[in-house]
Structure formats: C-alpha cells, structure tokens
Amino acid sequence: MRRVTWILAIVMSAALLLAGCGKKDAGSVVKDLDHVIGKLESYQGTGRMVLQTGQEPQEYQVEVWYQQPHYYRISLTNEKKDITQVVLRNDDGVFVLTPHLHKSFRFQSDWPENQGQVYLFQSLAQSILLDTERQFTKEGNSFVFDVAANYANSGQMARQKIWLDQKSLAPQKVEVSDSSSNVLVKLDFTQFEFGKKLEKDSFDMQRNMTSWDLKSLDKDAPVSGAVKEPVAGAASPDGKAAAAGTAPSTAGAAGKDAAAGAPASGASAGAIADGGKAPAASPDKAADGSAKAPAAAAGTPAAGAAGADKNAAANSSAGFGLIEPSYMPKGVAQQDIRDVKLGENTGIMVRYQGTYNYTLLELAPQTQTVSVLPGDIVDLGYTLGVVTGDEKKTLTWTYEGIEFRLATADLPHDELVKIAQSVAEEAGK
Fold first, then answer.
1. How far apart are CA 65 and CA 45, in angstroms?
2. What is the pLDDT of residue 342?
3. For residue 46, what are the CA distances in angstroms to 62, 77, 173, 195, 260?
4. Which of 80, 282, 286, 303 has the greatest number of C-beta atoms within 10 Å?
5. Closest CA to 312 of 279, 331, 278, 288
6. Helix or strand or coil: residue 60?
C-alpha cells in the first residue's frame, strides 16, 4: 500500500511539473518572440485590412513578403475601386508603385525601420518587445498583447491589440485604436508562413510594374523578369520605356516655392525631363501666361472665394476638372486658383491662407523621371502617399490618374492627411 502511495505521489508531482513547464506567461512569450525575430529569414502573409480613418471605411486585401536582409513587397488591393498599389524595398531604394496606371515613385528612406506598419511582423513584434507595460492574456489558441501603438505618421493611433498563434507566434489579428478606444485599423491574417522561399526577382521594381496580373509573381511563375504580354506604356523587353510609360516621380514640390504657393523650379516631372525650370507665375498671370483672377481677401469664406478662378479652373487647359478637398482647417480660406505649366505637364494650383498656409497642385503627368528624395509613406485610406521634406513638407499621391501635391511649411501632419483624404471624397461625387 505504501509503495502504491509513493508511486501516485511521484506521478502527480511529475504531472504538476509538466503542467507548470507548459504554462506560458508574458515574460516567456516575449523571450520566445525575441528569438523568432533573431532568426527571422523570410515570411509571407495575406489578410484583410479595414481602415476607419476617413469618413467611410476602406477595405484592402493585403499581401506581404519579406526576405532577409531588407527586401519587402507589400501589395494593397482595394477591390471596390479595383486599385492595387505595391510598396517595394530592394537594393535600389523604396518604391510606391501603382501598376495599373503605370506610375512609380522612388525615394530614399529607412522604411520600414523608421516607420512601423501594422501588416509587418517586425513592427508588431517590436511593439510588444519595447512596451514594458504590455498587457497579456490568452484567448483560445492565441496569445493576446495589448501594447502602445508606435506609428510615426499617425498621431491618432494610441493602442493596439495583437493576437499571436500560441505554437508559431505568427500574427493572427491586429486592432489599432485611438485614445478613446475606437478601432481605427483592423487586420485579420488569413495566412502567415515563416521561412517562405522567395526569389529575389520578386522584389524587382520593373517586374512588379510590368506584371499586369500581379498573381504572376507567385512562386510558380518564372523568375526571369519576363511577363505574359507587354503592358501598354510599360518598359519594353529591351529596357526602353514607352512614351506613355510609368508616370513621373512626384517628389519635387517640397521646396520653398511650393510651400509659398508657387511651383518649385525644376521640381516637376516635366521640368526635370526638360532639364530646365518651370516658368514662374507673375502676380497677374498664371504660369502658362493666362490672366489670373484677383485673389480673394484674407478671411473670405472658402465657398465664395475666387469665383472667377473657379470658372477658369472648370475650363482649365490642364485637361481635367479641379478636384477640391472637402475639408479645410478652421481659419483657412482659399485665395486663388490658377493654371500652371511645368515643362510638358499642365495642371491647376490652388492656394490657401490663414491659420495655416498651403498649396494644392494637381497634374496630369505625361513624362517619366527618376527622382530620389528622403521621404516617408503615408496611408491615406484610399491610396498611399509619400511625404518629402522636413521644415517644408510635400505630401504627394495619385488618384484616378491625377497627381496631387499638397505643400506647406506649417500644416500639422494630421491636418495634412485630413485634407488629402477629403480629396477622394470629393472625387467620388
């Protein structure tokens, strides 16, 4: 009897010991997560992301690829608008591509190291590792962390909850909230795989631009850079760009002149392509020589400002109608609207003054340029933009074939984003 008692005691002790060893607390999970980051070589994930940062929710299908040491490819598809954009990082820099419009933008950046992204495993893991006040729970087969959100270009995002698979620590779901606990971003991963074998060619800019069917970048596709059939306006097999090829880089409006309301000399695609400077507008004339209507007095309500300019913009030589933002910061009034000509490109420039001062330049770019400036990616909900400049900033983005440049020396970042987001709301009417 005594022998049986001892055996039962030993068995129970072993069971308790094993149960204790198998129980994970926040510290042990964080240690394991740090180990996963340390040996990370590659991954591939897909998911559905919903943004609540504008007036209407925007839904994306997300695909993210990473390969050591610094190769990234993120595909964001808005199925409702049938728009796909691709963010690439390779040995040549960081690119924002809009393949269906044959538009590309290249810039210098430490992205994503200097700017976390909700769909990148490294960003999620680092936010858990760095938050010493992290909150930890378990739900089903998930470890759940509630940590501070650290996204450089969004002051609204305060907290985020991250669900990790208990076995692999792969991300399953993310919810990012503001200071009032309103969910601004929700991302559900449908698939995530560590150690995915990816070809370096998959991160090539030209291949991503010329592959109209982005699914051709799948692992079963040839990796020679060839595409099924050439896309109109894309690069030909001999490497020469067609006349209607990728649109110009949009970096250059961040100069002093742009912030002051005039086109920056040499900043536009056309000006760079011509090797010259864009003609400066005189006080009484637009850049293309046409008469400019008198500016509205400071403090005049935006709805009544520059009425003659509005009529001129409607008949603009730019070849498209003016799209005005529906949002304007308090204390700001529209001053004037004028046609501009920057090299081969024609456009419309709108100037705003008051509490903040900024200009909005709209172009239908016709030429291609390679321009590299320091910048950061900004998610506008309906498209991706790039902020360049430091004291004088320019937010550049494309939408429905039009290139927008919002330039300022004093607009706060959140106001800059709100104005840009409101452009899509007006364009959709």
1. 7
2. 80
3. 5, 11, 11, 15, 43
4. 286
5. 288
6. strand
Tokens of 263: 């086109």
Give 295's Cβ-side CA count (13 Å radius).
18
Q: Report yes or no: 71 and 90 within 8 Å, Cβ to Cβ.
A: yes
Is the model's pLDDT at 269 over the cut of 60? no
d(CA 112, CA 377): 9
Burial class of residue 404 in the structure, from the number of CB atoms within 10 Å of its CB (0-12 exposed, 13-18 middle, 19+ buried) = buried
Q: In this model, does residue 138 exceed pLDDT 50?
A: yes
Answer yes or no: pTM beyond 0.85: no
How far apart CA 338 and CA 207 sit, in angstroms, is 39
Per-residue pLDDT averaged across 411-427, rounded? Answer: 85
Q: How far apart are the first and last CA of the chain?
A: 86
Spatial neighbors of 91 by CB under 8 A, at least 6 apart, are none
Residue 165 predicted with pLDDT over 60: yes
Cis peptide bond upstream of 222, omega within 30:
no
Residue with tokens 């009417």: 429
Question: What would the mean pLDDT of 293-317 be, rounded to a whole number?
Answer: 41
Tokens of 13: 């002790």
- Axis-axis angle for helices 26-38, 121-130 (nearest 10): 140
**Residues ≥6 apart with Cβ < 8 Å to 55:** 425
Burial of 74-94, coded b for 16+ CB within 10 Å and e otherwise, reads bbbbbeeeebbbbbbbbeeeb
Mean pLDDT of 291-301: 36
Q: How far apart are CA 241 and CA 246, in angstroms?
A: 8
